[in-house]
Amino acid sequence: LLSMVMVVVMVETMSSMMATGDIVGKKVDAKMLRNGLNTCGIATTICGFFNLFPYAAFAQNVGLIGLTGVRSRFVVSVSGIILILMGVFSRMAALVVLIPKPILGGAGIVMFGMVAVSGIRTLGQVNYRNNNNGMVVALTLGLGMMPVLVPNLFTQFPPMVQLFLHSGITIGTLTAIVANLTLNGSVPFRVNHETPVPDPAPPSSAARNMAVRTVRMWLLLRKVQKERQPEEAQEG
């Protein structure tokens, strides 16, 4: 059961890492993704010893990086230490409560907007030609928004099923995986919207020599015509 939850958590972690790399202008390769997922798994294992919830990436931090422009890992480490101290000492956590809600709401709107912009930018880099990526994105967005648009849609399902279906991230992730494997990953379901055009063959050496001779002959004729024009003018 927890393995299915971790699949969703890791998909969210990968998307946050790729969005962060896009904001800071650094390409995220397979090694970085692997190290990030390993860190996520180790953190989740440690949480299990303390009877805590699994570790998950906080996607709002992606918007916070784009909003403030602060990209230093030192700042992130110090912020983590501050959060740990706030969890241990309730007096420090009480300071957060003093922040006015309009300020939190305004910052939240901008942060969530930055996350949405980063996602739109990532989708804009997807190749939608000669494949069914457009259908995959449409199904993922449509089904992923169902729990938000219709909150009571899964109330008649068993509690164990509701645990997975109440989140749009879970439905969207499963839909994206299944749709991509069905529409793009299996040969019988692939659809080629355009017939691939083979690359033209490079010209042979004989054709190149013929072209060079033709150009030289044309230049020679032009030179002869220019030399004859003054002579014809004098005779006239």
TrEMBL record:
Its main location: membrane. It is a multi-pass membrane protein. It is found in: Membrane. Pfam families: Xan_ur_permease. This is Permease. It comes from Klebsiella michiganensis. Keywords: Membrane, Transmembrane, Transmembrane helix, Transport. GO terms for molecular function: xanthine transmembrane transporter activity. The keyword Ribosomal protein does not apply. Belongs to the nucleobase:cation symporter-2 (NCS2) (TC 2.A.40) family. InterPro entries: NCS2. GO terms for cellular component: plasma membrane. The chain crosses the membrane at residues 74-97, 103-123, 135-154, 160-183. Coiled coil: none annotated.
